[in-house]
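Whiteboard transcription, Tuesday session. T.W. wrote the structure tokens on the left side:
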């Protein structure tokens, strides 16, 4: 058989360094699937259970390797299924190429079976580049441009290949004539450091500040050493957007932790009190958690100029690589003689960790979800990769989990989609088979697509050097974050038809698949369960049965939210009494952290357990 366009596409992907494609087959890509079989394994096709999972896995591959992620799906419904995972990549600025099939060219425009206007479908998510290969001579430059644009612009691109084109004879080099394109492969050199004049302007602003706050995001993940040096030079505290959680370890005394609705008290206090804001590699969107306009002078560093001065009116905006720019900026910064601001931050952080411990150890029925994360922290392997889902699991991940140097972690940040944790974890294992991985998700995400993804995990785990993958499911039978949002923002009581989830034995299901499965409903068993899962010879599902009524209290609660919250509880919320008890315990833990969430009423026997409520 003569090589086809499909063979050429895979050869070109291989030349770009692609070694793995996540996808699901279908007759719209039969030509491409056949070409995988002729490649002798130098590009692996990883079959997901659903195209959405494949797109999530491609996104995670990009996040955990820095390489371009690639996913593939058939025409029509398969292509449509990719969209949510691709929007996750777009929202988090990850380089992902989607390759999708299409009906034969002769059928297009004829309302043919599974014919969808794919260029229109992908024009938003892959707006930087979406192109259909119509002749064999196009294949080379379309793939080259899709990969280069995805990589250099850190975005999503899409290549559409009609099924008849896939079977055409390959054209390795287009003819040297008018109307042809001759593309190439290679590294793109860019100016990674801003001009010296702009660095001097930024240094002047930062040197003038006496209360400097630093906010870091995913764009600073590779700049840990430079961040520490700059923070120490400026006497600053460092807050972290969720995607930047692993940019600095949480054991540094001036790291205030997460910011925003899922953030910490010290991050809130620092932003309220600072006179200078240095934002690095972050597009954190919530202005109410940043300094008020006019309160602070601003400097921002981002590799993407489109993100500069977008969230706060910055005085100096620097387009450049965060590590290289900080390294160039450091000699221009003056050490702080007065340590009062830094001392204040360190004191606030130390107290906050006491509050977190007290809240985690507060009684709950049957278990406090915060304690699940709190007990995991000291047991985390030093080289662990963490994959978290959206919802209250993200709140506890943000606040209660202490990451250390060398760890990696991510979640669906900009899109905040449910269902990303388990495909992220699987992709992490493919990319780093010798590292342990922990996925943290709720029962809503597990029921949505996680149960399907678990089949993929069960299928592949034996091939990995280190078989440890821990899938922790918070089993509270509630779409918990939305329930809290209904109460606190809309002022509505919990609506059980939309919020209550059916029960499911996740641990038993795992055992059915040949994995380990542990169900935990006693708080004294949490630590041991983590230890067993992290020492197991195969992946383990931990079904943590937790209390849905423990509130993810934000660091600052506006009066309007307090009024909405109370209105919801006093107007028919089915769990009102249990919620009030749990809220009181969490509030008291913040007031008197030494009591570990045991209120005076608890100690006197005056507050009944939530399970005692009618």
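and on the right, the sequence the group agreed on:
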């Amino acid at each position: 058989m003569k090589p086809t366009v499909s063979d050429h596409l895979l050869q070109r992907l291989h030349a770009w360094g692609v070694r793995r494609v996540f996808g699901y087959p279908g007759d719209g890509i039969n030509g491409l699937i056949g070409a995988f079989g002729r490649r002798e394994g130098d590009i692996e096709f990883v079959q997901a259970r659903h195209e959405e999972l494949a797109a999530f896995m491609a996104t995670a591959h990009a996040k955990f390797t820095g390489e371009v992620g690639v996913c593939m799906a058939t025409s029509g419904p398969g292509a449509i299924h990719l969209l949510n995972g691709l929007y996750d990549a777009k929202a988090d600025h990850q380089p992902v190429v989607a390759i999708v099939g299409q009906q034969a060219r002769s059928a297009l425009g004829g309302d043919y079976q599974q014919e969808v206007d794919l260029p229109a479908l992908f024009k938003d998510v892959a707006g930087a580049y979406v192109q259909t290969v119509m002749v064999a001579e196009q294949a080379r430059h379309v793939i080259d441009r899709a990969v280069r644009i995805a990589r250099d612009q850190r975005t999503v691109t899409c290549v559409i290949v009609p099924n008849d084109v896939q079977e055409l004879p390959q054209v390795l080099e287009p003819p040297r004539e008018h109307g042809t394109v001759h593309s190439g492969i290679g590294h793109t050199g860019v100016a990674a450091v801003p001009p010296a004049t702009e660095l001097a302007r930024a240094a002047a602003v930062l040197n003038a500040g006496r209360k400097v706050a630093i906010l870091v995001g995913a764009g600073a993940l590779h700049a840990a050493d430079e961040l520490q040096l700059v923070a120490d030079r400026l006497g600053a505290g460092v807050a972290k957007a969720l995607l930047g959680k692993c940019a600095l370890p949480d054991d540094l005394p001036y790291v205030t932790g997460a910011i925003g609705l899922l953030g910490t008290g010290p991050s809130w206090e620092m932003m309220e009190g600072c006179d200078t804001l240095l934002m690095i590699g972050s597009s954190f969107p919530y202005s109410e958690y940043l300094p008020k306009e006019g309160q602070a002078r601003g400097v921002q560093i981002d590799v993407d100029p489109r993100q500069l001065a977008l969230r706060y009116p910055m005085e100096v905006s620097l387009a450049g690589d965060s590590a290289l720019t900080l390294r160039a900026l450091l000699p221009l910064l003056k050490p702080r003689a007065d340590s009062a601001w830094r001392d204040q931050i360190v004191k606030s952080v130390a107290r906050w960790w006491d509050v977190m411990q007290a809240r985690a150890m507060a009684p709950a029925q049957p278990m406090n979800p915060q304690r699940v994360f709190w007990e995991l922290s000291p047991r985390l392997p030093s080289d662990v990769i963490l994959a978290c889902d959206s919802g209250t699991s993200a709140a506890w991940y943000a606040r209660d989990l202490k990451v250390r140097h060398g760890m990696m972690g991510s979640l669906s940040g900009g899109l905040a989609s449910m269902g990303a944790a388990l495909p992220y974890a699987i992709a992490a294992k493919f990319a780093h088979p010798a590292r342990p991985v922990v996925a943290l998700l709720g029962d809503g995400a597990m029921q949505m697509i996680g149960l399907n993804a678990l089949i993929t995990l069960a299928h592949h785990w034996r091939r990995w050097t280190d078989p440890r993958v821990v899938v922790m499911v918070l089993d509270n039978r509630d779409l918990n974050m939305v329930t809290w949002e209904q109460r606190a923002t809309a002022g509505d009581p919990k609506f059980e038809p939309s919020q209550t989830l059916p029960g499911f034995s996740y641990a038993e299901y795992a055992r059915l698949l040949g994995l380990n499965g542990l169900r935990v409903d006693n708080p004294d068993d949490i630590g041991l369960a983590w230890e067993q899962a992290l020492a197991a010879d195969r992946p383990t599902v931990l079904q943590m049965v937790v209390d849905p009524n423990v509130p993810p209290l934000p660091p600052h609660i506006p009066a309007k939210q307090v009024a909405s919250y109370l209105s919801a509880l006093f107007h028919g919320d089915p769990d009102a009494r249990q919620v009030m008890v749990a809220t009181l315990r969490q509030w008291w833990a913040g007031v008197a952290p030494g009591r570990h969430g045991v209120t005076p009423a608890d100690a006197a026997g005056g507050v009944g357990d939530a399970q005692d409520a009618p």
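Someone added at the bottom: The first helix runs from residue 5 to 15.
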